[in-house]
Amino acid sequence: MTHFGVTLSQYIMEEQRRYPDATGNFTLLLNDIAVSCKMIAAAVQKGQLANVLGATENENCQGETQQILDVIANDLFIKNNAKRGHVAAMASEEMDDVYPIPDGQPRGNYLLIFDPLDGSSNIEINGPIGTIFSILKTDKKHPTEADFLQEGVKQVCAGYCLYGSATMMVLTIGHGTHGFTLDPSIGEFILTHPDMKIPETTAEYAINQANRNLWEPPVRQYVDDCDLGVGGPRKKKYTMRWVGAMVMDIHRLIQRGGVFAYPMDSSLTQKGGRLRLMYEANPMAFLVEQAGGIATTGYERILNLTPQKLHQRVPVIMGSKEDMTILLDNHKAYASETDKEFKHQCPQYQ
Ligand code: AFP
């Protein structure tokens, strides 16, 4: 059955009316992103029938083996955006360096940053995977890496496309977080989840428990308290979930509340964390905050971080306000006992 709702294109064009000086470039860029995601969804759905499963012989700049679908998704994003005239440059988790728009091609004033296929280890097992994207502005015609290194608060748009049992695009342009479901019968994303709000209370957390012995005390304290259940300080029974694809774990959290954490641990100090600031943490933090949640490293609001490099990694903890407040209080107390600096500032946590 076809859902007669607002399409993604219609939604974006309506939003454009808020900006009388808008040229329409941003609307067209979002359309190109949506088309790229539909193409990736089509490849994901065919799976082995289209010979798209399995690993390549290449490693990406993160030292991870690239899957065939990683490469297909990356190529689709590049191809669908490089010659359209809306972006000045792109950066992908799968590419070492900034992708400049080729000479002679029209260029716009947006920087497109993406993780073409997040959760690649789920590809083989037919598990949920997704695409994450973030858009910044620039006035440079030939941007370099330095032009991408803007705080997350400067994002003009962030979103993800979840290739799950249904394909869903969730995005924010700074006026709430909205979800669109792909109707395969008409090939359009339809607004099905307007103004998504993360429940403030929760009894669910998502964390890779295998790293428990490596976490810092504030996170271990939180999880220990949750695990004590009704007899513990939280006085309720918690559930743990871990999909191994941030897009899915965050989508669940936005829909029904929860905490998602890939915190700092003693094996990650050299790297700075596990998840990538520009490709994962910043866009998800923007979506989570716009849905009423909190996103932090434990010590600092993610959206306030000044990026040092394109592929920078950071600790990530985000989710429902009540549990995030406990986690931040734990970090604040720990910081006061150690030489760590606590400077998390956001409207949701004072
Ligand atoms: P890949 O895209 O390389 O599979 O990484 C996925 C991810 O960045 C994020 O989506 C997951 O939450 C996290 O890594 C899973 O990490 P672990 O495998 O250490 O649990």
Automatic annotation (TrEMBL):
GO molecular function: fructose 1,6-bisphosphate 1-phosphatase activity; magnesium ion binding
Biological pathway: Carbohydrate biosynthesis
Fructose-1-6-bisphosphatase class I N-terminal domain span: 7-194
Compartment(s): Cytoplasm
GO CC aspect terms: cytosol
EC class (word): hydrolase
Keywords from the named record: Carbohydrate metabolism, Cytoplasm, Hydrolase, Magnesium, Metal-binding
CC cofactor note: Binds 2 magnesium ions per subunit.
Gene3D superfamilies in alphabetical order: 3.40.190.80, Fructose-1,6-Bisphosphatase, subunit A, domain 1
Biological processes per GO annotation: fructose 1,6-bisphosphate metabolic process; fructose 6-phosphate metabolic process; fructose metabolic process; gluconeogenesis; sucrose biosynthetic process
CC cofactor: Mg(2+)
Binding site for substrate: 118-121, 208
Catalytic activity line of the entry: beta-D-fructose 1,6-bisphosphate + H2O = beta-D-fructose 6-phosphate + phosphate
Quaternary structure note: Homotetramer.
Protein name according to UniProt: Fructose-1,6-bisphosphatase class 1
Organism field: Ignatzschineria ureiclastica
Source species taxonomy: Bacteria, Pseudomonadati, Pseudomonadota, Gammaproteobacteria, Cardiobacteriales
